[in-house]
Amino acid sequence: MAQETSSSREPLRKADVNIKLSEFEIPPMQDILFVGKKAPIGPEAVRRMVDAVSPEQYEIVRLNHETFEAVVVKKSLLRLLPKEKLLPVVIEESNRIADDKMVLKAQINITIQVSRTVDL
Amino acid sequence: MPTVKSLISEKLYTIDPLASVGRAAAIIERYGIGSLPVVEEGKLVGIITSRDVRRFHPNRLVADAMTRKVITISPTASLTEAQKLMVKNKIERLVVTSESNIVGIITYAQIMLELGKYTDSLTGLNKAEIFYEKALELLRRGQEIAIIFLDLDNFGGINKEYGHIYGDNVLRQATIILKNLINMNEDTLCRYAGDEFAIVTTRSLAAAEKLARQIVTAFANENWPGKIKVTISAGVAGGRRSKIRECGKDSSYIVKNLVNMASLASTKAKRLKKPVVVVEAVEFKETACM
Fold it and tell me: What is the ipTM of this complex?
C-alpha cells in the first residue's frame, strides 16, 4: 500500500459551475398567495413586498382561519369574481394540502360563461 | 398609596416593527425582559412578548408577530386600577404612556407584590390606603358614597382578659361576619386600624344605616369562642356633592371628612350605648381634588 508522505502532491481540486438563467417573476408570486399562521414570513412582510414590487395590484385579506393568517389576492381577479365568492373556494382547496408553516402560491384561471338571448 | 409610576424600571427597551422576531428574541433573552414595546417613528404600534417570539418563526417581521392592540395606562394611575385593567383584558403587562410617549412597562407580578403591602396580614382585608383610594375613585365617577365606621367595644379589655391570641381570633371572626354581610358590588371593606373596620359604600345613607344595624345585630348574635360577648358600635356618614372637579391641591378631604364624621359617630354610639349613630348628609360644594 502506497503511503502518503510529506512530499506527496496536493489533491487535484476542480469546480464545476452550472448556470441556470430564468426571468425573475415580478412579483415572485402568481394570482394568490396563502400565508400560513407559522410561516417564515407574515402578512406585513408580504404587504411590504408586493407594495414595493407591484404597487396597488394586490389586496391583502387577513383571515381568521385554522391554517392561514392571510391571503394576498391579485385585484384584477376580484373584478372577475368578488372575494366573498372566490376566497371560500380557494381557501378550502388550499387547506387540503397546506399546513400552517407554509406559504403557498396559487394560479387561478377564471372563465366567465355568459349566454344571452336577444330579440330578433 | 404609590402609583404606577413607582413601579416603572428606568431602562426601557423597544424594537422597530421591521426588525426580525429573531432580533426581538435576542433582546428579550439578553436583558431578561418579558416583552418589548414596538415603536415606529416614535409612535407605539404594538407589543411583542416572550410568548410571541416562541410562537413565531424567527425570520418574521416583528410587525407580523406583535399584538397590535396595546393596552396602556397613565403613570399617575393607581395600582388597583392597573390590576383591574390587566384582569379585565387578561394580560400580564401594561405599557405606561404619558401624552403618547412610552414611559415604561409594568407587570402583573410587580403590581401584586406592591398591593400585598396594602393587605392586612391578620384578616386578609384591605388596609385603609385601599379604602381611601376606592372612596376617591367612586367620587371621581360622580357616585354618592356613605362611610360606615365600625369599632369593636372594649376590645382592649378582651385582649387584657383573654390574651392577644384570643383577640386576634375575634378580629378574624369579625372579618368573616362583615364579609358575609357586605355586597362586593356596592361595598368595600377594610381593617382601618386595630379594632376598627370601615366600609365605603355606594348605598344610600338610609341603606348604609340598615347595613350598619345588621352588622351590629350579627355581632350581638354571634357565637363567639369562650361564649364571651363581643359587640360593635357603628357610625354612618354620607354626603352629597354638588360640584367636584380635579385640581392640584389635597383632594381627599371629602373622604377624610366623611371618615372623621363616621368615626366620631361610632364613638358617640359607644358613649350613648346606641348601636348606630348616623350623621346627616352634608352638602359638599367645594372643589375636591385627587
Answer: 0.72
**pLDDT category of residue B288 using cuts at 50, 70 and 90:** very low
CA angle (A85, A87, A91) in 5-degree steps: 135
User: From CA B267, how far away is CA B263, in angstroms rounded?
Assistant: 6
Residue found under cell 361610632: B266
Written as one letter, the residue type at B233 is S
Q: In angstroms, rounded to a whole number, what is the distance separating the alpha carbons of residues B188 and B202?
A: 9
CB contact under 8 A, A40 and B57: yes
- Residue in chain A lying closest to B18 (CA): A45
Task: Please give the pLDDT value at position A5.
Answer: 56
Query: Which residue type, as a one-letter code, is found at position A34?
Result: F
Q: Per residue in A12-40, pLDDT tens?
A: 899 999 999 988 877 777 899 999 999 99
Distance of alpha carbon A38 from alpha carbon A35, whole angstroms: 8
Which residues, 6 or more positions from B266, have their beta carbon under 8 angstroms from its beta carbon?
A: B149, B150, B151, B233, B234, B235, B277
Location of C-alpha cell 397546506: A98
Distance from CA of B45 to the nearest CA of A (A): 13
pTM of the predicted structure, to 2 decimals: 0.65
Q: Quote the mean pLDDT of chain B.
A: 86
